[in-house]
């Protein structure tokens, strides 16, 4: 029997749009932009399951709920990826790379992947506690998701040998949503605009590199023709007296 610990009093400590199951389960499920998968995940044995739309405040709240329950050792990412925010990829980057000194999630591709209320200590605890992130991003197949949950449960290593870590998110909301928080999240529209601006910037840089290459190629071609012409004239001038 895997060793279990009591989660923080009142767990989940951050309220919101999720369904809670057995707090001693080793699996937490994030359904990203999909809704309606939560109860099936709980029935399969998950401790908590719910959506997460944003790559900043939403991720902070999921992390807060996970590290306040030492029994959660696996995170299953499933459901549709959130366009613009790319929350699923940001979760993976957070677990793999952590955050920089500015709070930015290293390697994240979302519009604004910065954690303002969760510091390095909490992120490192999250990285230690979660032994595996199961990538089922863009999968809404209930049978595949529940099979992944049950497989994680079969590998339950027991609770992490640390006490629950409780974060104060200043009255925050859901395990991935934004209601009631004092830090105002970026709206989806703004995030999409910024993501598209970033994409346009990358395309402009690519076009500039291509233009630079073409200019160099053209200049080299012209120089090659000029040198060839010069050598031809030189050779002709050398041969001509002999004719």
From TrEMBL:
User: Binding residues for 5-hydroxybenzimidazolylcob(I)amide, per the UniProt record?
Assistant: 85
Q: Which GO terms describe its biological process?
A: methanogenesis, from carbon dioxide; methylation; one-carbon metabolic process
Annotated cofactor note: Binds 1 5-hydroxybenzimidazolylcobamide group.
InterPro entries with a match to the protein in the record: MeTrfase_MtrA/MtxA, MtrA
Predominant place of localization: membrane
Q: Give the CC-aspect GO terms.
A: plasma membrane
Transmembrane segments in this chain: where? Answer: 222-242
What pathway does the UniProt record associate with this protein?
One-carbon metabolism; methanogenesis from CO(2); methyl-coenzyme M from 5,10-methylene-5,6,7,8-tetrahydromethanopterin: step 2/2
The keyword Transmembrane helix appears for this protein: yes
Taxonomically, the superkingdom here is Archaea
**Cofactor(s) in the UniProt record:** 5-hydroxybenzimidazolylcob(I)amide
Signal peptide boundaries: none
**Subunit structure, as described in the record:** The complex is composed of 8 subunits; MtrA, MtrB, MtrC, MtrD, MtrE, MtrF, MtrG and MtrH.
Query: What function does this protein fulfil?
Result: Part of a complex that catalyzes the formation of methyl-coenzyme M and tetrahydromethanopterin from coenzyme M and methyl-tetrahydromethanopterin. This is an energy-conserving, sodium-ion translocating step.
Family, as annotated: Belongs to the MtrA family.
The protein's name is Tetrahydromethanopterin S-methyltransferase subunit A
Native species of this protein? Methanotorris igneus (strain DSM 5666 / JCM 11834 / Kol 5)
Per the UniProt record, the lineage of the source organism begins with:
Archaea, Methanobacteriati, Methanobacteriota, Methanomada group, Methanococci
What is the gene name? mtrA
